[in-house]
Amino acid sequence: MNSPSNSPRRAHDGVDNLALVAAYHADNPGLSPGAISAARHFLKWARARKVPVRDLDASTVGKFLRHRCRCSRYSPNQLRSPMYATYTRRFLRYLEETGVVAIPNDTARLGQHLETFAQKLDAAGYSKVSCTTLLSHATHFAEWVFQQRVPVTAIGDGTIDRFARHECRCGEMTKHGDRVLTSHYKNRKRGARALVRHLIDEGLIPPEAPDGASAKDQRLTGFEEWLRRERGVTSETVRRYLNEADRWLDRLGAIPKDFSAASIRSIVVDQGEERSRSSVRMTVTVLRAYLRFTIIQGECAPSLLHSVPPAVRRKLSTLPRTISEEVVQALDQLLHVDR
pTM for the whole thing? Predict the structure, then answer.
């Protein structure tokens, strides 16, 4: 059995691989030694596994990063480094851009639409910070879709959710790790959804592709139009408002004439412990907006608007952390005496 070091293929493949790495370095003179090492290591591993260079893809990179490395001149510890994985994926991206790696014709190439997407955000009046954030995550989404070879017709809510939860090694120097499970997950979804909505508006993705799983509640259709026409809110705000309203709309009542002060208060008060304070405030804001809409339509009594309890922020509701237990007990006794 021929080993990678004495295989008769070495004389031919070795020269090709060295030429690829040399061209990669020449086109990117600022590459670090670690990036060059990752490129050489990846090609050496692929040659040993008899994987043609033109067939390399994201799944191949995953296998490379998980292999039990016994390659000469390289260490298994290198494969555990997130930066090493990033270097490998960036090299694969270079091979794709230069035509060395074959790419299926139906693969979504969303990067070409990012410029018009950025112009649309700017024309819509987004702040500079919002534009930068949305464009950053949209760029990340476009890169991830390309690496995963996702067809345009397959892009939908499931694709966006998988993107938001993936542990990033895309080569775009984006955030990864535990933050994906918290706010970063939401930010990824916002950027991806904004880009997908832009592609729908441009006719590049069928409207039913991302949101075809569930039909919109007819009671929210007029509310959506009112938000856009009378309140002038953005598409992202409309989406958040509709998602929040859909969560408790059935509890509110089948028709506006059935709304009651008790049902309105219960929507705000009877929320689970997992709901954060900001989520409760969101409920109050959307509930008031929906009630105003029904009042303007003449379908609901104006007095019911005052039934929405406020989302109180009690910044001074807790005792100072430095107060001793003896002082707390003394205060408690004084309160009982006063009673």
Answer: 0.51
